[in-house]
Amino acid sequence: MAPEPEFFEPLKVTLDREFDDFRDLLAVDRLSGGASMETYRISIQTSSGPQLLCMRRGAGGIDRESVSAVGLRTEALLMRTAKESGVVEPDIYYELEPDDGVGVGFIMEWLGGETLGSRIARSSDFDSVRPLLASQCGRELAKIHAIDLDTTGLRGALPVLSPEEYVDQTWERYKAWDTPQPMIDFTGRWLQDNLPEESEYSLVHNDFRNGNLMVDAQTGLQAVLDWETSHIGDPMRDIGWICTNSWRFGQIEKEVGGFGDLDDLISGYEEESGRPVNRDHVKFWEVFGSFWWAIGCLGMTDQYRTGPDATVERPAIGRRTSECQIDCVNLLIPGPTTLLSASSPDRQSDMPRLDELLVSVREFLHGDVMSATTGRTNFLARVAGNSLDIIGRELTIGPALARHETALLSEMLGLNGDIDQLRWQLVRLLRDGSMELESSLLQRYLRDSVVNQVAIDQPKYSGFQFATSEAFYS
Question: Going from the N-terminus, what domains does the chain have, and what CATH number goes with each?
């Protein structure tokens, strides 16, 4: 049984004060997932029997800008406003106050649907509603985008972001970190060169995707969750984001969340809103989605280094930046690529070999630890074992990739140096505009380096399978 959280007693006092029917606090369980925010299932006893509540809380109980850009109070306002506007939402019951001693957040209605994106996209339990979801999502997005910003008070509570500002803001966030990622800079340049024409701004949910939606197996979409990065801007951002491959959960052929078709999403949106959707506009935001999440993944590593909630999940998500980068490759510069062969870093006479040490710990985590745990600890044991797999592939593929990258960079740049020096030089040329994006050497380098990095980080990723359909081995 998991230990009670440190805020258990203050939460009990708060619930007793705020809920007339409250009798006792039975359990507080942190749910798996939720790398940016904490979500808890709260079990209480009431005069009429047991009841479940949901609590959304800033990581470590703190309302940091890097966790909730709009703040937890504004997030609660957004959910209340959306529900009043006909969007499917849970009721917000109570916003936590500093004197409660629980942290920053709010308590809301518990809904019993599914939020796990992989199950929504793949489980047979959702076969009957899956064909309905894309159209339902289109209609809910149209309702969100139609919310009046002035009468609701949202205009004064939310930032305004143009497409150009959003690209620049996201790119600048990445530039502040000491890491040269040439595919990110290539994509930033492409986005700047292909900004959409001005459109009428509206409320943008900004994280409307499979995994932030609650789905009922009989009726379909039940709730829209996770409003913490909402802003005022181009509404097509939301349509491009739900189409981003990171949120298709392996179902790459289903453009909308891994469960539906873009035609159905657009039809639902256009029928509800009465406004046409420009598909080129959607592609821009799909590319931006992978660019934004590539940088967001790196941000998880930054939070691991500097934040209050340094879990094993954050650096593991940091490695997923290569998945987003390969999606950018597939969208912008698809083509043949070289897939490098793995080699053992060990002497076969070593006892034990490095791979044996890694596998033994991975099997302990995935076997003994997971079988003896539940909930978030069980989830984090799986994550930890997967991180050991990444280390193992880094040891066998990483040296060959470093040699291959160095050779391609030296040929392209006409310079010698180590891999970091050469990557930084390329990044500088991409940022100042002196490197042509159409360069065949550049595009070959980017495809090879990103594809082989994903071979290390997550070779089961659907974007990797797509990218290597024209691969040859070296």
Answer: 8-109 (3.30.200), 117-298 (3.90.1200.10), 299-473 (no CATH)
